[in-house]
Amino acid sequence: MRSDYLKVPGATLYYEVRGSGPVLLLLPGSGGDAGVFDPLAAILAEHFTVVTADPRGYSRSALDGDPVDQQVEVLRDDAYRLLETLTPAGEDAYVFGGSGGAVVALDLLARHPERLRLVVAHEPPSFAVLPDAAAHKAFVDEVYALFRTEGVAAAGARFVDGIGGTMRPMPDPAELPPRAAEMVRRLFANAAPMMAHELRPITSYVPDLTALARVADRLVLGAGRESRGHLPYRPAAAMAEQLGIALTEFPGGHSGFTDQPAECAALLLDLLAAARTLT
């Protein structure tokens, strides 16, 4: 594995590259970083050049100035610049995004389909596409207010409870190997800026379904089996129905791709292999 930095407008992105073959960019959920994909990337790197990165403002990707609210368009542009830097001329790339990263992946496909062979979006928290969007906006506003008044722990607990408890708690760093322990410490530090600057913009963003309909053959919308009946499952299911494509169920819940990396990698490799055979 090698690591490097990419200067982008307003920030410097830290990224990691491992493996060989077609480029596969993995986009973490809000507040996550490159390290959350270590187990998944180790498997995928046997078949792909796997690119992982810390989104701007988190972990090792420093902002040029003070923190501001994250905008999907800016995060999408960061992802596109990574792909343009690392994808050989004339080749297509593949993208997997989880949670907030899935929202970014959807916007990337809508705006730059010419560089993408397949995008897999796992449980994008696009609550604004749901018929009861107003209730979910009120829930997110409640979480944000709780963050401002009582702090990260209280807000995080309310959010996890509100989405049905489909995310496993982070492990104790003292019980982990050094690299994993460092990652968990970074994620704890990322929680406050995520609550302050990303939770509301990501969950209120409306994907461009008109643009996505034109390239729906290059899109997989996924949801975790353990998320059935809970809020994280519903946006992917609703968008799949509107776009006329199947919803693909993944092992686990909202964080299944980190909780069950081997099982999720097997399914993901099947999806990517099918896309690679298309001309």
Query: What's the main sheet like?
Result: 9 strands, mixed
Mean pLDDT, all residues: 96
Structural class of the secondary structure composition?
alpha/beta
Radius of gyration, in Å, reads: 17 Å
By DSSP (H or I, 4+ residues per run), the number of helices equals: 11
Which blocks of ≥5 consecutive residues have pLDDT under 50?
none
Count of DSSP E strands? 9
Q: Which shape, going by the Cα principal axes?
A: globular
Order of helices and strands: EEEHEEHEHEHHHHHEHEHH
- Give me the oligomer status: single chain
Distance between the termini: 30 Å
Give an account of the 3D structure:
- This protein is an alpha/beta fold and 279 residues long.
- The protein has eleven helices and nine strands.
- The chain has helices spanning 38-44, 72-86, 100-111, 133-150, 152-162, 178-197, 199-204, 209-214, 234-243, 256-259, 261-276, and strands at 2-8, 11-19, 23-27, 49-54, 62-63, 93-98, 116-122, 219-224, 247-250.
- Strands 1, 2, 3, 4, 5, 6, 7, 8 and 9 form a nine-stranded mixed beta sheet that branches.
- Helix 1 links the parallel strand 3 (23-27) and strand 4.
- The protein is globular, with a radius of gyration of 17 Å.
- The two termini are 30 Å apart.
Helices, strands, pairings?
Elements: E1 2-8, E2 11-19, E3 23-27, H1 38-44, E4 49-54, E5 62-63, H2 72-86, E6 93-98, H3 100-111, E7 116-122, H4 133-150, H5 152-162, H6 178-197, H7 199-204, H8 209-214, E8 219-224, H9 234-243, E9 247-250, H10 256-259, H11 261-276
Helix pairs in contact: 1-11, 2-3, 4-5
